Amino acid sequence: MVYVKKTLLSLLCFVLLLTIATPTVTHAATTIRDVPTSNTNYTAISWAVDNDVMSLNSANNFLPNEQVTDRELVLMFAKLDRNYALSYVDSVAYNFYSDFYLPFSGTHVNANRTKAVTRGQFARIYAAFKGLDLDEPQAVQYLYANDLSTNPTKTFASFNPSTKLTRSEAAVFLYRAVQNSSFALQGLKRSAAGRDNASVTLPPGFMGSGSVDFEEPKNNNNDFTGPEYVNNALQSIVVEKPDLIANDVDSTLVTVSLKACNGDPIADDKSYTFRVTSSYGAKIVDTSGEAVRNVQSDGSTVSAIVIAPALTKSVRDTISFELINNTDPAMKCLVGEKLNAHVRYTPQPELRIDYQVYDPENIDDDNGSVTPPYVPYEKLPEFFTENLIDVYGPVPLDDDADEKLFSIGQQTNVTDALGNVQNIYLQYGGSDPRYPALGYEHAVLQFENYDISVYLFEKILNDRIDTSITTPAKTEIMYMISDDGRPIYRIQGIDDAIASQVENINPVGSIIQLMSYMPEERDLTLEHYDSVMKIYTILTNLSNYDRTVLLKYQGGQLLGQVEAYRERVEALKESADAASRPSGKDRYTKVMVTLVRPGGEPVTDYQGTVKIKFDGVEKTASFVTNTSDPLNNTGNPGTAVAYFDSVIYGKSKVEAVLVNPIDPRYTTILKDLKDKKVTEEIFTNPYFSKNSCSLTTEVAYVVDYSSSMKTVDPTNYRGKKMIEFIDQLKAKHNIVVETNTAATVLGEGTTEAVLTKDLYQASKEKGATDILAGIDIALSKFSNDTRTSKAIVVVSDGKTSKSKMTKVINEAKKQNVKIYTVSMGKKSQVNDATLMQLATATDGAYFHALDNLQLHQVFQKLVDAILCKTPASSCINPEDLFEEAGVSLRKGYITMSARVDGNCQNVDKMNVRFKSVSGDIQFELQKRSDSVYMLTKTVQTMQDFKVNNEIEFVAYDKDGNIIALKSVTITN
Prior knowledge:
By secondary structure, the chain is α+β, with helices and mostly antiparallel strands. The chain is built from 21 helices and 39 strands. It starts with 8 loop residues before the first helix and ends with a strand.
């Protein structure tokens, strides 16, 4: 069997003699109507047209000022690349270049493929194509040094890196690139992150200064110290939780607020890039949990999420934000400066509470917070380089062993105890006991560049080892290291016979080859669940063209087979889930409590019990079960499980406390948990009630994914709920838009059509805010049918550029489109003026949701407002109208204050009730505004009463009826 090795493609391409002639000065074979021969770029443009790199439209116009999209650019590279021998289909080109880590923005996010490319992005892509991992300034200098750009000024700013790349500019850059050297892919070995910046020297004045461009970073020991001009720019640094548990789970949001260097406000549509680092090596992640190195600001704020490392000692960490790639003179004072925040990591024992909810009336929602079992990273092959390695059979070495191990080898450099470097063939799991076999079960396992299961990984390797002609038998795979430090073991090579039948389209060939290792449908078991779902994931991400190619393969039988396999394993999983449910419980909340030792590792052999309380019911559970099959007590012990008959949709609380005596083996390490009640707030996603009306509608959904939204919605609940909302409305025509610095249409069409796409599930917060751009693009997508009701639903924090406000309001009125706006989070985090103006001017409504439950309630109101065409009250829930309530004790005074939803006009009076052994004490608060009530009393007022810490705020309507209650405790 012959396999196509991607790493050998360059050799293959030379054999195929795929060449492109060096450009010469010729006249275009076809007259270019909109580019005269006198144009300075005519030679490059005519070359691009003659060589089919770029094309003319039906009117023979080149459109030189049109912007180049990511999809267009990847195909231009493919057509010119001497090492590219595949079809000129964008998905094929993206798959090919993804293996060489070219930083095309559309490689993994299909929505980015239609976005325009900036000049700075082109520079980075071209540098990576030539084998250099550079940030934008270094990449631009690389273009200057190689004469791709002949700008006489030769500075970063004069290159205009943030300006969109035009067709004329692309033709010129590529013409010069082919003219100056061989246009052949070299690529990178890891994701682009600026690792080769040191290889390019930036000349003095390149970044706009008169002398040295990048100043040496200052050691700012205090968050707010530094030169005066920095403190003019730095307004505040806020750490949400300064003290974290050192368990590799606990996290905090760090937010930096800025102004321009002269103290002027920063516009909401401005975005800058900051490098975020941890002095202790803590992970910096986005809201999806993916590790990041750089973050983008949103107007005046920039934020990052820090995950505490797993430690057995307390440490103080410094989180630094540093402005990079800056071209704005207004922010020049921050170049080279580090803005520091401080976080402390402390190891401590935990009672970790997780939950699952089962309700047959809501089986489509996966409610729960189950934490995956503790899985340590597989050990890296320390001396291996990221390259091909040999795998020796069998895999695993011992089927009966508790751990899956394999034997791998590579010719590499090894440093001995004396510091001598030797080039040897090193085999882990071979005859040398110093290099034992390594684990692979919890590594990243791939076929081509697609994740696969352990089952498929073993099947493919053993199949290839069995047909090996070497002694001892072995096969080759690629070894790499992921961004979070895990080993990646990638099997390469699609069967030639398969590849030739599917136009060498990587994902299609991968599906066919992987399915060949699966058993017959009747022989599927739950062991194959992960394998089937991994294959199905590749299928769901196929482009329309790729799917058409798969349909042609064997008459489309395989496509139906993958669907059938998925249905089969889903049915098996459902049967297993049903069997694991306790008998006699039609619906339940399952609470799981795990003991975790300081440092983050679960305790698996604790002998004892825990009291668990939920919805007023208390149960005692032993730490003798696990989350895989608690009924049969199988698996490793360590998790206490209790089932409760009730399901509470929305917010509820679980309490847990260890029952004394504590297991004597753990008395010391768990001493902090003795008699400690741990409370966890849980949230069960509510489902919509049945629609009371039906109406033919067109609805656009515009959701803000700018950087500031990670503060108000760190779990992306708005994305999950918006997808449910789309399904509930079932509009005739749907327009799904994501907006940050720019707006992107994620899906358009019928409800069934748009729900097949990822929509907001893969969206990540980044950049600045321009929700009006999202509304503007949505308005351009509505039909001219006057019989359909039209609406736009916007979810945002309202911090946006307002330059298009008049335009979008006038256009919405013209098309009779109502705009409903929704904000999330604390009032202080929201600019509601813009959102209210949009809603009021178009006869829509504005809502403010404090939390996830209220966001659901807003969407439920919007279902009725849109389908029943009823006026929507902005008062979300009159029974849950408290936005804030508190009682504080300070310097001899007690201050009672409450803020209610200003949209709820039914509050006539606000009282605070203190419980006392002498009888309740009530104070009526003074109304300070439409939504704020406050009263201050001296402590002496209370001295004759023995009050406890149970305090209630009570809201009354004009008839004296209680309409809302809020319980609080005193804070000092």
